[in-house]
Write a structure and sequence with these properties.
434 Repressor (Amino-terminal Domain); 5 helices
Amino acid sequence: MNENHFHPGVYLRELMIWHDLSAGDLASAMRVPDREIVDLTRARRKIDRVTSQGLADYFGNSAQFWLDLQRSFDRGCS
């Protein structure tokens, strides 16, 4: 696996642009506070198991995908 040196929030931000989706829209759909999504897209928050499942449910991929992005980023920073 290639190491990822960008925060998963960067990828999330690109997906949101692609889907013409605001942080508030995504937060509402995931039933989380807007701040959680904003903090993710600004690389101020890590993706945890609960968040990864919410993102997977919304975007139709797997929770493991999001956790792997976070894990790869964390390894690249250490």
